[in-house]
Structures are given as structure tokens and as C-alpha cells.
Design brief:
The structure is a single chain. The protein has 11 helices and 5 strands; from the N terminus they run αβααβααβααβαβααα. By secondary structure, it is α/β, with parallel strands linked by helices. The protein has a single domain (33-239), classed as 3-Layer(aba) Sandwich (Rossmann fold), CATH 3.40.50.1110. The longest helix is centred in the C-terminal third of the chain and has 21 residues, at 169-189.
Length: 243
């Protein structure tokens, strides 16, 4: 019986139908272009070149592209990463035309906000919650105007206690909560699903220490990025289920 089961698994994999792959979300129609935008968490150390070994970095975007792209090659999907380390929402706005609109995405995934909080707390460049919302709203409006059929996925920034935020932990929590409230509001406005990464990481700390998931309070480890990829795909599958 065991031998038959092993042979069945091998045959299934050889046919390109992995038993453990989830359904392809309806959002991933053939020839869909998926763009991931954000800061260092999305950047993932990617090379800013056309080298296919390094164009997606080492992060949740890479894991999502590897999963969906590997299991559904017949869809001819294009995954693009334009996250830039250190970016705030105003930095995104400054490069929006060239690195978002000109790329003509069909799905736009956004993860931004933690640097807006970080810069506020280290006094680098203070941005109020209202200013953050205005800038974020403007770039989303421009993206939807360029493509009225654009599917938007909004990801909430997240933190866990670590060296990056230990000196001002209470302020970090309050500001991140404020940013997440803005993103929730924009999610309703643009009818975009919101990926609540904070809840995922909070729950994960019941299974392993904080630094197993996020090494400095802000940046995930490889295990943390896998949690992010899993949750992103879960939300997208729930929002645009298989027909």
C-alpha cells in the first residue's frame, strides 16, 4: 500500500499537479501582471537588474511568485517587485509613474507605512496620519484611474518587540495602529482586501520566540516571510476564489 501511495505521488508531481498546491485564485487570469510595491520588507535585497535569479529578492513576494508561478506555468504570469528599502509613502509617490503606472499591473500589492512611523519617531521627517492617508489615497487613485479593472491588495505594516523599536515601544504601537486604521479605511474605499500581517505575527509568537519570526522588530526572517506569503495567498484566494 505504501509503495502504491509513493508511486501515485510521483506520478502526480510529474504531471505537474502538486497535491498540496492550493487553487489558483480567479485574480490570476492568463497573462496577469502582478506588481509588489513597498519598502525594504518587499525589496528583500532584490537586484535592480533583469537577472531572473535575483529580480524578486528573498521575501514574501518571491515565495508567492515561486508558489503560484511554479504550480501554474500555463497561466504565463509575470511577477514584478519594485519595493525599495527605506521608502515611505511619499517616496512611493515620487516614483509612482515610472515604477507603477508605466508597468501596467493587473494586480497591485502594497505594503508601506512602517518607515513613515520609524521616521516620525526618530524625528527624521514627521508625517501626520492625515498626510499619510492623503498621499496613499492619491497614488491608489492614480493607479485605479490608469486601470479601472486593477485589483488592489493592501497589506498592513506590522511590528514585534525588537531592537528597532524597544526604546519607544508604546509610541510604535500607537502609530502603527493609526497607520493600519488608515489602510483599513482605504481598503473600504477601493474595495481592496486588507492583509492583516500583525495578527499573523502576534499568533505566531505563541509557537516560537519573537526573533524567530522578526529579527529586529521590523524585518521578518525567512520563516516570517513564509507566514506572510501564506496569509497573502489566503486573503487573495478568499477575495477572488476559483470559479
Amino acid at each position: 500500500m505504501m509503495r502504491q501511495w509513493v508511486l501515485f505521488l510521483v506520478a502526480t508531481c510529474l504531471c505537474g499537479k502538486d497535491l498540496f498546491a492550493g487553487d489558483l485564485p480567479a485574480a490570476f487570469a492568463r497573462d496577469t501582471r502582478i506588481l509588489f510595491q513597498g519598502d525594504s520588507i518587499t525589496d528583500g535585497g532584490r537586484w535592480h537588474s533583469s537577472d531572473p535569479n535575483h529580480i524578486l529578492g528573498q521575501d514574501y513576494a518571491y515565495l508567492i511568485a515561486a508558489d503560484i508561478g511554479g504550480h501554474f506555468p500555463e497561466q504565463n504570469l509575470t511577477f514584478i517587485n519594485r519595493g525599495v528599502s527605506g521608502n515611505t509613502v511619499s517616496d512611493l509617490a515620487a516614483r509612482w509613474q515610472k515604477e507603477t503606472l508605466d508597468l501596467k499591473p493587473d494586480i497591485l500589492s502594497m505594503l508601506i507605512g512602517v518607515n513613515d512611523v520609524w521616521h516620525n519617531l526618530d524625528k527624521t521627517n514627521h508625517v501626520s496620519s492625515a498626510e499619510f492617508e492623503k498621499s496613499y489615497d492619491q497614488i491608489l487613485a492614480a493607479a485605479r484611474a490608469a486601470n479601472p479593472q486593477l485589483k488592489i491588495v493592501l497589506c498592513e505594516p506590522f511590528i514585534l518587540p525588537g531592537r528597532a523599536n524597544e526604546r519607544h515601544w508604546d509610541e510604535w504601537q500607537a502609530d502603527i495602529k493609526s497607520v493600519r486604521a488608515v489602510i483599513g479605511k482605504l481598503g473600504e474605499k477601493y474595495q481592496a482586501p486588507v492583509v492583516n500581517f500583525q495578527a499573523v505575527f502576534d499568533a505566531a509568537t505563541n509557537r516560537a520566540p519573537v526573533n524567530y519570526w522578526i529579527w529586529d522588530g521590523v524585518h521578518p526572517t525567512y520563516a516570517g516571510h513564509q507566514l506572510m506569503a501564506d496569509e497573502w495567498l489566503r486573503v487573495v484566494r478568499q477575495t477572488w476564489p476559483k470559479p
